[in-house]
Amino acid sequence: MNHQPSHPTDGPICTSVQRALLGLTIPLETLQVVKNRMLQAMGEGLSRETHAQASIRMLPTYICSTPNGTEKGEFLVVELCKKHVRTLWVTLQGDGNHSPQVTQDIFDMPEDIPQGTGEALFDFIAQCVQKFLTDISRLEDHLPLGFVFPFSCKQTRLDKAELISWSKDFSCSGVEGKDVVQLLQSAINKQLKNVDVVALMNNTVGTMMTCSVEGKPCEIALVVDQGTNSCFMAEASLVETIEASGRMCVSTEWGCFGDDGSLNDVVTPYDQHVDEESSKPGERRFEKLVGTLYLGEIVRHTMIALATEKAVFVESNINVLKTKGVLSTQQALEIIDEEEGMAKARSLLEGLGLRPSEPDCCRVQQVCRAVVSRAAALCAAGLSAILTHMCRSRELECLTVNVGVDGDLYQGHARFREILESVTALLAPDCKVTFVPTSDGTGRGAAIVTAVALRLVAQRHEVDQVLAPLRLSRDDLKRVQGLMRREMDLGLGQETNATASVCMLPTYVRNTPDGGEQGKFLALDLGGTNFRVLMVEVGADGIRMASESYVIPTAVTQGTGEALFNHIMECIMDFQLKQDLGDQVLPLGFTFSFPCQQLGLDKAVLLTWTKGFSASGCVGKDVVQLLREAAQRKQHLGLKVVAVVNDTVGTMMSCGYDDPKCEIGLIVGTGTNACYMEEMHNVGTVEGEQGRMCINMEWGAFGDNGCLDDIFTDFDLVVDKKTINPGKQRFEKLISGMYLGEIVRHILLALVDKQLLFRGKPCPKLQTNDIFPTKFLSTIEIDGLGLRKVQAILEDLELQASFEDSMLVREVCQTVSKRAAQLCAAGLAAVVEKMRQNQGLDQLVVTVGVDGTLYKLHPCFSQHVQQTLKDLAPKCIVTFRQSEDGSGKGAALVAAVACRGVKL
Ligand code: BG6
Ligand code: GLC
Q1: Region label for 104, one of left (φ > 0), alpha (ψ between -120 and 50) or beta (otherwise)
Q2: Is residue 574 part of a domain?
Q3: Are 117 and 192 in a shared domain?
Q4: Which pLDDT score is estimated for 316?
Q5: Same domain, yes or no, for 248 and 129?
């Protein structure tokens, strides 16, 4: 291999030289080991558990695709380089990036800037931008700017990047830990009005983008300059520090490789000295073996060591070599030159006041060669690690890939280039690599990234416009609370009840449980996701229950009333058989979760069906009577219905058994509704002034009189129109499980239509009604659920979702469920505030018993309800208690009291 040193043979002097050269030469087997360690370190940087301690940070860049050639427009780019700032004006033609127009300027940086204050640095960059725009007469234009910033940053968006730490020669104060996009934007704002920093990228990323042209994507980039770094298109599912699918460019920040000691067996004493003299000893060990900031220094320290051992410069005073920087990397590279190198070495050494012999010059040249060759070989080991990682993660036998390369070493030095390429071929034999040197630096790539960022900004604006009507302000919610309160008052009033959208139905339940209830009961629970039959035994020592769930087919819920109640009877009989109840006639409590005009505890006239039920011949009839008739039809004689309750009431009673403060029942499931204990003197629709009565609000119908019209969005209107009861249950249709999935589906369709989702491709399956159930929201919104799971859900719907698509779908779900939770809280706020005022309290302490799949299973619904309620009703301390056993238990408790003949 041509990076092996040649072996001088003249005596003991040369033994030292030989040893030094050998130390600087890494054998192929060791390079293989370095590669494997690098692979392992990459894995650690990508893994969620080990990322924080990993030596290689593997930073996500939020760049999810290589350019596709459609990028078009005019962009401003500013690049922070080692000693200067480069400004560019790039015009992309949308022609596959073959012929970008680039105008550029370079501004030398005053020497004190890299070690000065952050403010001075960013002010200087802003001045460069200002001067450039003045020179090209574009001061007045509104300009998007891409910022190439070659330091390690924790990026959370294209335009948000916290500097992790300075490297190379930079150490400006007050920048580490800050968002550098913001810092640059603030500095620019001091001088210019129209420039927006829309994207920040590492220079490797700029290189990768620059080297990509249509049809020939470049998926890896390597920069070997003062410092060194690389980036590549990683499988996003392996980047565990973010939730993404598809691919994302990862900046490896491999300069820090070895900071955990993993290069110790490669590092020489000369490298140790270089490290000790650097601004951050112990850090960026790999970079210090590879970057041009250090190569000259390594040569210098090798020469010092050799001179001390009297292997070179025997007749010279070598003190001059002890000064940092007397030999630059550039000079070392000139010395390597086959033809001129020896002469260069001589003139340089003499220039330093040394008196080199011919062999001295030769040895210095060998050292320079060894140092540069080693840098190239180490880069090759790193690159091979990336190649192998990509090959494995893409499950390929052979990876064919273009690697963009930037930096003086590769561009200007054949030796470095040859070794990098040949060693890479040896270490990653499965990969076909084409090296693509950048032609005009990173500027064009930065312009492309800026174009992508701009497209995202424009998209964001459009998405916000679509979602804005669903985002409710605090004022909106306050207004809803006020309207609910008004409707409650109207509903309770004898004369006004007919005009109210909230019916405020009396339930004839006058007390919450007191623990004295006893007996064995049957219970039915109809109207939620499941139809259940239960046996409930209430004893002094607590409650025992047995239950069975039954499916009621849609054909039955939407068929005839007779068929529906026959089906219910069949289920009861099946249950009695299974429970071995024989001829026992148990009193029955019936949870019937639909609006009923209650004429007594055991007499409830169905006012209207809701939640997709529409069985004929039931509305206007007493449902207890309908059940009894079905029993007769089935010749079942042992049915004794003693109480009918709404599920809200059942839930309140059920939770009230364990918590006497539970005076409100809330359901957020298939439908939504609430009940609460109201003062009799406020209930104009029932005779009597004394005591209290539970009121079934039937708040699902809130807004059916038009009072919420300005809250409804176009999506809500479409969803409503397609239900079997259009114009009815308007509040419920904003909140409950039966409808949220549909709202989301319609929003997604609108986003596709506007080309903001799924690349605007038609989605036939998504056109199907109810194909996106609300349980999807509950899954998609789980915190920490990888977006690939989201992608899997969407795949079932035949939707190919990119990273951005999955993020957007999640955002839509979040927006819809959050609005639902907030509206629910606004309703509750009206209830608790009314109860507080009823009782003339400064502070009300109350418990809400809650049930329903949406409330229970959605990852953030309950939290949003509680937070919003706290905000809207700050004088009420409200505890939420989830009902564990369903509302059948509550129905049995009501039945228990009815059986005792005690007025509930
Ligand atoms: C159940 C109750 O737990 O929750 C029912 O027992 C109630 O009475 C139901 O109707 C509401 O939730 P969902 O999600 O089943 O409609
Ligand atoms: C519907 C019903 C109501 C029930 C609620 C929750 O709104 O009309 O009675 O309480 O759904 O299930």
Answers
A1: beta
A2: no
A3: yes
A4: 86
A5: yes
Ligand 1, atom 2: nearest CA belongs to which residue? Answer: 886
Give me the mean pLDDT over the 133-144 stretch: 90
pLDDT of residue 264: 96
Mutate to test the pocket of ligand 1, among 524, 529, 696, 775 (most ligand atoms within 8 A of CB): 529
Asked if 307 and 252 sit in the same domain, the reply is: no
DSSP state, 109?
Answer: P
Please identify, among 362, 389, 421, the residue that sits at the C-terminal boundary of a domain: 421
786: confidence class by pLDDT, cuts 50, 70, 90: low
Kindly state whether residues 204 and 81 are assigned to the same domain: yes
Do residues 589 and 654 make contact, with C-beta atoms less than 8 angstroms apart?
Answer: no
| Structural domain contains residue 781 | no
Strand 844-851 and strand 876-882: pairing? Answer: parallel
Q: Is 853 in the pocket of ligand 1 (CB under 6 A)?
A: yes
Which residues does 689 contact at the CB level (< 8 Å), separation at least 6? 680, 681
Q: Is 475 a catalytic residue?
A: no
The CATH number given to whatever domain includes residue 189 is: 3.30.420.40
Q: Is the pLDDT of residue 9 over 70?
A: no
Q: What is the pLDDT of residue 902?
A: 45
With bands split at pLDDT 50, 70 and 90, how would you rate the model's confidence at 791? confident
> Per the structure block, which two tokens stand in for 176?
């580490």
**Structure tokens, 819:** 């609005």
Counting ligands in written order, the one closest to the CA of 884 is 1
Nearest by Cα to 739 from 718, 711, 754: 718
The reply to whether 37 belongs to the active site is: no
What is the Cα gyration radius of the chain?
38
Going by C-alpha positions, the residue among 394, 462, 108, 116 that lies closest to residue 234 is: 394
Per-residue pLDDT, averaged over 129-133, amounts to 96
Q: How many of the other CB atoms lie within 10 Å of CB of 760?
A: 12
For residue 244, name the pLDDT band (cuts at 50, 70, 90): low
Instruction: Give pLDDT tens digits for 344-361.
Output: 999 999 999 999 999 999
The CATH number for 348's domain is 3.40.367.20
| Same structural domain, 88 and 178 | yes
Residue 208 CA to ligand 2 center (angstroms) comes to 58
- Give the total number of structural domains in the chain: 2
- What average pLDDT does the structure give for the chain? 92
If one residue of 851, 853, 855, 882 were mutated to test the ligand 1 pocket, choosing by the most ligand atoms within 8 A of its CB, it would be 851
Among residues 471, 491, 481, the alpha carbon closest in space to that of 820 is found at 471
Q: Are residues 304 and 195 in the same domain?
A: no
Predicted local distance difference test score (pLDDT) of residue 6: 45
Q: Which of 123, 225, 647, 704 is catalytic?
A: 647
Residue 723 pLDDT > 90: yes
- Mean pLDDT is lowest, of 429-438, 713-722, 775-784, 813-822, for 775-784
- Tell me which residue range forms the domain holding 316: 260-381+408-421
Residue 136 forms part of a structural domain:
yes
- What's residue 557's pLDDT? 96
Q: What's the pTM value of the predicted model, to 2 decimals? A: 0.72
Task: Determine whether the shortest distance from the Cβ of 885 to ligand 1 is under 6 A.
Answer: no
Residue type, 842: D
Ligand 1 centroid to 838 CA: how many Å? 29
Kindly compute the dihedral angle of the four CA atoms of residues 556, 560, 566, 568, in this order, to the nearest 10 degrees: 50
Q: Has residue 450 been placed in a domain?
A: yes
Question: Are 250 and 273 within one domain?
Answer: no
Distance CA 183, CA 236 (A): 29
Phi and psi angles of residue 77, each rounded to the nearest 5 degrees, phi first: -130, 140
**Which of 647, 696, 698, 856 is the best mutation target for the ligand 1 pocket, counting ligand atoms within 8 Å of the beta carbon and taking the most?**
647
Options 369, 532, 745, 810, the catalytic residue:
532
State whether the Cα torsion 787-789-793-796 is positive or negative.
Answer: positive
Instruction: Specify the pLDDT at position 492.
Output: 98
Q: Are residues 88 and 100 in the same domain?
A: yes
Q: Which of 355, 390, 421 is the last residue of a domain?
A: 421
Distance 836 CA to ligand 2 centre (A): 25
Indicate if the alpha-carbon torsion angle 479, 484, 487, 493 is positive or negative: negative
